[in-house]
Design goal:
The protein is an alpha/beta fold. It has helices at 40-45, 54-62, 95-104, 116-124; strands at 6-13, 17-19, 47-53, 73-77, 88-91, 109-113, 130-136, 144-145, 155-163, 169-176. The chain has a single domain (6-176), classed as Dihydrofolate Reductase, subunit A (3-Layer(aba) Sandwich), CATH 3.40.430. The model has no long low-confidence stretch (mean pLDDT 92).
Length: 177
């Protein structure tokens, strides 16, 4: 049986922010090109489950961009549960326990969509298997960092790297524990 991988596909500014002040994501538009998704469609096709932070979910669903999650089981990590069910489940339990249960179940890989709190917990719990970082050529100066302070040191092994005409540089790493 295929062991499900827990994978992060994320965009950051050159100075390491996944969003500007007030969760501003407008810097992502700097690299938008018609017909170019920087490998996201291939990545998303390899997953059937999305674990997403509440703030990220609210931003994505309010933008009307929930279509990348169609036909996927979505777990919204929230400190307060929500009665919704079906393809979207609000989960207020232990993130580590959820991920371990998902990894041991049958299915495609697990897609992580979240901020530094979620990413840090997964790294410190040794549950994140790969990280694909797309670096956008801008310095934001402040905002929401990709990684929070207090992470245990984690070794990464470069799997793939490349650049695009837009200036975006992408690197995929295997997480080594």
């Amino acid at each position: 049986m295929h062991t499900r991988k827990v994978r992060l596909f994320v965009a950051t500014s050159l100075d390491g922010y996944i969003a500007g002040p007030d969760h501003d994501l407008s810097f992502l538009h700097l690299v938008e090109r018609e017909g170019e998704d920087y490998g996201y469609t291939v990545y998303a096709d390899e997953t059937d489950t999305v674990v997403i932070g509440r703030n990220t979910w609210e931003k994505v669903s309010s933008d009307g961009a929930s279509s990348p999650f169609k036909e996927k089981q979505v777990y919204v990590i929230s400190s307060s549960g929500n009665p919704e069910s079906g393809p979207v489940v609000y989960y207020s339990g232990n993130l580590t326990q959820l991920i371990r249960a998902l990894k041991s179940s049958a299915g495609k890989d697990i897609q992580i969509e979240g901020g530094p709190q979620m990413i840090g917990e997964l790294l410190n719990s040794r549950l994140l298997d790969s990280i694909c970082i797309s670096t956008i050529p801008i310095l934001l100066g402040s905002g929401i960092p990709l990684f929070r302070e207090g992470l245990h040191p984690v070794k990464l092994e470069l799997q793939q790297a490349g650049s695009f005409p837009s200036g975006l540089v992408q690197a995929t790493y295997k997480v080594i524990y």
